[in-house]
């Protein structure tokens, strides 16, 4: 890269806050609806459209089978906070479906714990 | 992790996908200092090669809220390794390893909310690292167990001495663990689940 010709499109860091701000249109949290957790499972319902942001299209392409938001974050190389915002649009438009994690207000319920213990014992 | 979206995004390998029936996910957090074996433990029990998610933290700069100050802010990227265990065709358990030091507590908000509980992984040669973590978990009211990672060259202390040194309440379970060993790591998780089970069944009447 020579400095004689400044590159117009590369004036911010790929992973820097400016890019992430633009990706999310300046939003820092999903608008409303059910809160999304790092382990909320996401499944694609409809193929991406050509007008979609590439990052959102990428999310839809990898979620044919359920993936947690943390896994999506790892595969698309974006922080969970950014993926969450991108997903809010996809969920609202019905392109993706969220399978909510069990809300554990205080203590988890007995049947859930039994299922977890049973699963671990069979490892 | 670099954020070059120009590279095509590669999703999970076919053997790393969950069944379409997977509907419920729960999480457990493995907390401990650097080098204590969090990622080793996650890797021992995970069915996928541990993945990494990163959060970028922009330090609250002093008087730099105008655009001119942007490049002077210090950015810290913190990586969290995590793994996955399919417990049944519907139920999935995620394990997140997170550093225990106070400067990483900003990560804890999204991570600990909704978590079943935590395993505090301890190296007996560096017990001091665990004090802050245990205090913080007690503050948050998140149930946890303490797992002593058996490093070959670490001195073996009686559990009761360790409990006293950490000022750990009597009801918090402690367990020996070899993070490199699948069965041993699995047993540490089971210790947490049995503890949660006991807490849930004894706290049947509302407090």
Could you characterize the architecture of this molecule?
The complex is a heterodimer of chains A (123) and B (207). Chain A has 123 residues and is mainly α. Chain A has one domain (8-103): Arc Repressor Mutant, subunit A (Orthogonal Bundle), CATH 1.10.10. Chain A contains five helices and three strands. Chain A has helices at 17-23, 54-62, 69-76, 80-92, 110-121, and strands at residues 41-44, 67-68, 96-99. A three-stranded antiparallel beta sheet of chain A has the order 2-1-3. Chain A starts with 16 loop residues before the first helix and ends with a helix. Chain B is of the alpha/beta class. Chain B has one domain (19-60, 69-202): Rossmann fold (3-Layer(aba) Sandwich), CATH 3.40.50.300. Chain B is 27% helix and 26% strand. Chain B has five helices and seven strands; from the N terminus they run βαβββαβαβαβα. Chain B has helices at 38-45, 108-112, 128-140, 159-166, 182-202, and strands at residues 24-32, 51-58, 75-86, 91-99, 117-122, 144-149, 174-177. Chain B has a seven-stranded mixed beta sheet with strand order 2-3-4-1-5-6-7, with helices on both faces. In chain B, β6 (144-149), α4 (159-166) and β7 form a beta-alpha-beta unit. In chain B, α1 (38-45) crosses α5.
């Amino acid at each position: 890269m020579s400095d004689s010709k400044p590159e117009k499109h590369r004036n911010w860091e790929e992973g820097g806050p400016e890019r992430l701000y633009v990706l999310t249109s300046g939003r820092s949290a999903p608008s409303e609806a059910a809160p999304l957790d790092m382990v909320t499972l996401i499944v694609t319902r409809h193929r991406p459209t050509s007008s979609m942001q590439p990052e959102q299209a990428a999310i839809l392409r990898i979620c044919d089978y359920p993936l947690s938001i943390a896994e999506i974050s790892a595969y698309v190389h974006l922080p969970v906070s950014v993926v969450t915002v991108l997903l809010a649009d996809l969920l609202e438009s019905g392109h993706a479906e969220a399978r909510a994690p069990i809300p554990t207000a205080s203590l988890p319920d007995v049947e859930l714990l039994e299922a977890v213990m049973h699963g671990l014992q069979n490892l | 992790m670099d954020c070059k979206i120009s590279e095509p995004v590669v999703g999970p390998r076919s053997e790393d996908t969950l069944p379409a029936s997977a509907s419920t996910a729960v999480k457990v957090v493995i907390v401990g200092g650097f080098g204590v074996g969090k990622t080793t433990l996650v890797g021992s029990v995970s069915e996928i090669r541990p993945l990494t998610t990163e959060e970028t933290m922009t330090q609250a700069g002093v008087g730099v809220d105008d655009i001119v100050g942007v490049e002077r802010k210090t950015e810290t990227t913190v990586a969290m390794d995590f793994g996955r265990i399919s417990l049944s065709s519907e139920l999935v358990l995620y394990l997140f390893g997170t550093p225990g030091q106070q400067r990483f507590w900003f990560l804890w908000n999204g991570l600990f909310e909704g978590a079943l509980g935590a395993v505090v992984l301890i190296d007996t040669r560096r017990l001091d690292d665990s004090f802050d973590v245990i205090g913080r978990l007690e503050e948050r009211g998140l149930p946890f167990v303490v797992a002593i990672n058996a490093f070959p060259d670490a001195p073996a202390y009686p559990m009761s001495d360790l409990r006293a040194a950490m000022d750990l309440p009597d009801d918090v379970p402690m367990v020996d663990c070899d993070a490199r060993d699948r069965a041993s790591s699995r047993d540490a998780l089971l210790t947490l689940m049995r503890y949660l089970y006991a807490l849930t069944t004894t706290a049947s009447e509302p407090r």
